[in-house]
Specification:
The complex is a heterodimer of chains A (388) and B (191).
Chain A (H helix, E strand, L loop, with lengths): L2 H14 L4 H13 L5 H7 L11 H6 L4 H14 L15 H7 L8 H10 L3 H17 L9 H4 L5 E7 L2 E6 L1 E3 L12 E3 L28 E4 L9 E4 H19 L13 H4 L3 H9 L6 H12 L8 H10 L9 H22 L20 H15 L1
Parallel strand pairs in A: 3-4
Antiparallel strand pairs in A: 1-2, 1-5, 5-6
Chain B lengths: L16 H37 L1 H14 L7 H34 L8 H24 L10 H39 L1
Helix pairs in contact in B: 1-3, 1-5, 3-4, 4-5
The chains are: A alpha+beta (388), B mainly alpha (191).
């Protein structure tokens, strides 16, 4: 998903869930910021690099793919962009390593989505925004894993776009090119993807890199053979998945407004969104590389307020100008805490499932252990709260 | 339960068992096609190595042959030229042959139409590989009476090359069989 859905559509979802314009904007900003908060950005503002929620292209090329490096990559991508659907999925006749990677395949409505939303409960709009990014991506990025893996994430020539034509669909074979500087050609069906690398652990095989940006376009409908699928075709119906994501976000934000409420998977606020179904459907199926203008217009119509363009500098300026001890109170400070909590929760769940792909994790709450880097900030906050 | 889909209509995926088997066979055919192409490098290196190591004996036997045939004395340059031209011809033929069968296999695996001849030619090549392997094995064990001139590594490479070719022919046959089944099923549906 891109700026259009993570920022503007999230704003619409928050407003439909009953949030004010300001709260909706805060949720939307935080949701989009997940795609901006890299290690380089955090170094620039003097924040903890372990709170990174994404990796820039240059950081990816520079990333180590030794076990420690892979764990760092997996922590970031599995926690925020490819939330595993079932950490206890079984697969016959495979190695333990393969099974562990197979379990990281992203899918919506898994136990971790519930944990993600519940983690944001009572922690304010910024934490809610982080949770909405993760929730929305479980729909867009389903069938891919947030860890480098040729055996899971690879695709082949059997990749067809389904273009609505009359009552049915016209199949068009997707042509992939590997020039990262070239734009996708929607008319001719030429898309940019990562280069085929036979090495299992190269970053080229991370997430949906081998399928290009196709999972990020809301209008896209395609079928392909996922490497893990045993030569069975899989249909990816983005318009329906994005619609589900939107309805689930409205339900999730609505549930977060109640401090004692609870989020259930497989529930959608379809009734609340129904009056806008046709309008949203039109936006989702329109063949365009980005739907920012359409979502923005809908959001402004809904709230009657102007939605400013997304700007990273707002977060940055406030954080850098704040006194050091007050930084945690700023939007970026809250984002960092929410990101660390999400990352440590997912890492802990993956570790508890018997996999070391995201690294080692121990439950430090209540234990007198200094903590590892990922948890230091969280521990400090816990101690502060305890002292109070 | 998910919400009502917003996509214009339903689409049925084709995951019939023979379709899955066909895709699997195609994938294997493409992989082994690349394998055969890569092993071509080994054939070239091996031939050049044999010629290089045995160049003195080879030159001597060519010179003796020419003299015995009444051709008189010939210079080293002429013999070198003769070896080079025969070698170039041989290598070109091997390269063309292997490239043809491997590229055909890759093309068929990718669903393109290819000339059927590549399968009989592959079988011919398998026979050649069997003979090469037996000769190598006899040389390795010393049963041929000569010196032990073939290493175990070389023997294993020959064996791998042989297995690749067998796998290629087997996959090509599977691809055709499943394709036939799919075509007849589709024709049945159309009727």
């Amino acid at each position: 998903m891109q700026l259009d859905f993570h920022y503007y559509a999230t704003y619409c979802a928050a407003f439909l869930a009953g949030c004010s314009h300001e709260d909706s904007l805060s949720i939307a900003r935080s949701a989009q910021f997940v795609d901006c908060c890299s290690e380089s950005f955090l170094q620039g503002v003097g924040g903890p690099v372990s709170a990174a929620t994404t990796m820039l292209q240059l950081e990816m090329f520079d990333a180590n793919t030794d076990p420690m490096g892979l764990a760092n990559i997996t922590r970031i991508w599995a926690s925020f962009h490819f939330l595993p659907g079932d950490l206890y999925a079984e697969r016959k006749k495979c190695s333990r390593l393969y099974r562990n990677k197979y379990r990281l395949i992203c899918n919506p409505n898994g136990a971790l989505v519930k944990d993600t939303v519940e983690l944001a409960r009572g922690r304010g709009s910024v934490a809610a925004g982080v949770a909405m990014h993760v929730l929305a991506d479980t729909w867009a990025h389903r069938y891919f894993a947030g860890t480098p893996s040729l055996a899971i994430n690879n695709t082949n020539d059997h990749f067809y776009e389904l273009i609505p034509s009359g009552d049915g669909y016209e199949e068009r074979q997707v042509r992939f090119i590997h020039n990262p500087g070239a734009p996708d050609d929607l008319e001719k069906g030429v898309y940019v993807n990562t280069l085929y690398q036979p090495n299992e652990n190269t970053v080229m095989n991370l997430g949906h890199g081998r399928a290009g940006h196709l999972p990020d376009y809301s209008f896209m409908l395609y079928k392909y053979l996922p490497a893990w699928g045993g030569y069975r075709e899989i249909l990816k119906d983005n318009p329906s998945d994005y619609w589900n994501a939107f309805c689930q976000m409205v339900y999730a934000i609505g549930s977060l407004k109640d401090p004692d409420g609870h989020f259930e998977t497989d529930r959608y606020a379809e009734d609340e969104v129904r009056p806008y179904r046709d309008r949203i459907r039109q936006i989702l199926v329109r063949r365009q590389p980005d739907s920012c203008a359409d979502w923005k217009a809908l959001g402004e119509e809904l709230s009657g307020c102007r939605i400013p363009d997304f700007d990273v500098e707002i977060y940055k300026k406030e954080y850098m100008e704040a006194e050091k001890e007050l930084r945690d109170e700023t939007a970026l400070g809250q984002f960092i805490i929410a990101a660390l909590a999400q990352k440590s929760m997912v890492t802990n769940r993956i570790f508890s499932s018997g996999s070391l792909l995201a690294g080692f994790s121990v439950e430090l709450k209540g234990k007198r252990i200094p903590g590892i880097q990922d948890f230091r900030k969280l521990l400090e906050i816990r101690r502060k709260n305890h002292d109070r | 339960m998910n919400t009502q889909p917003v996509s214009p209509g339903a689409y049925t995926l084709n995951n019939e068992p023979e379709e899955i088997a066909y895709r699997r066979a195609c994938s294997t055919l493409v992989s082994v096609g690349w394998g055969v192409l890569i092993f071509m490098v080994w054939s070239v290196v091996k031939t050049l190595g044999i010629i290089l190591i045995n160049r003195r004996q080879l030159m001597e036997s060519i010179r003796n042959g020419i003299e015995a045939a009444g051709g008189g004395t010939v210079s080293d340059g002429v013999i070198y030229g003769l070896i080079a031209s025969v070698l170039a011809g041989y290598l070109l033929a091997v390269l063309a042959f292997r490239t043809y069968i491997s590229v055909s296999a890759i093309s068929e695996g990718r669903g393109r139409q290819v000339f059927f001849l590549y399968i009989p030619l592959s079988i011919l090549y398998i026979v050649n590989e069997v003979l090469t392997f037996i000769t190598g094995f006899l040389a390795f064990t010393g049963a041929a009476g000569g010196e032990e001139s073939t290493s175990l590594a070389a023997l294993l490479i020959e064996l791998t090359s042989f297995i690749l070719l067998i796998q290629m022919v087997s996959s090509a046959r599977k691809v055709r069989r499943y394709k036939k089944m799919i075509t007849s099923r589709e024709a049945g549906h159309a009727a």
